[in-house]
Amino acid sequence: MVKTHKRKKNSRIRGARTCGWGFRQKHKGHGNKGGYGMSGTGKKADHKKRLVSNDDKKNKYFGKQGETSRGTAVKKYEKINLKDIKANFSGNKIDLSKHKILGDGEGFKAEITAMAATPSAIEKMKKAGGKIILPEKKSSKKKDDVEEESEEEE
User: Fold this and answer.
1) What is the domain partition of the chain in residue ranges?
2) For residues 87 and 84, what is the distance between their CA atoms, to the nearest angstrom?
């Protein structure tokens, strides 16, 4: 005797978690990608390796990078040696206000305006008859200290 009315599949599967598709993620419509974003790229993963390959070292995907205090932060200016300045710039006044002058090379006769300079660079330029002009450092004295000093002078 043949069954005349077969029960619908959806009524048989009600309450089942995966509805006949096996593992829960298999029927999400995302293939085997593992999820959204960077999921599946963990330290021991064999998945999405190209996203965190050697080319991506600059982003430092793995591990902690730690913190640095303001005092130990990397300075944000470019560095340039005296020999490079002598080879690439001409004139008596050279404006390198966003650079730090390093002392590799010989000094020469010119005025260089710079953000910072090493003591050896300053010394070499003085010996050669030139000079390096640096921005003035802000004094760490407070207003009260300055007022007290002016009162003492009177």
Assistant:
1) 78-133
2) 5
Contact 79/102 with Cβ under 8 angstroms? yes
Residue 73 tokens, joined? 């932060």
Where does 78-133 sit in CATH, by number? Answer: 3.100.10.10
First-last CA distance in the chain: 122
Q: What Rg, from alpha-carbon coordinates, does the chain have?
A: 35
Instruction: Give the three-state DSSP class for 82.
Output: helix
82: its two tokens: 């005296």
Q: Per residue of the chain (154 residues), give pLDDT as tens.
A: 787 888 898 888 888 888 888 887 788 777 766 667 777 676 676 666 766 666 555 666 666 666 767 777 777 789 999 999 999 998 899 999 899 999 999 999 999 999 999 999 999 999 999 999 999 887 655 555 555 555 555 5
* 78: amino acid identity, one letter: E
What's phi and psi for 99, nearest 5 deg?
Answer: -125, 160
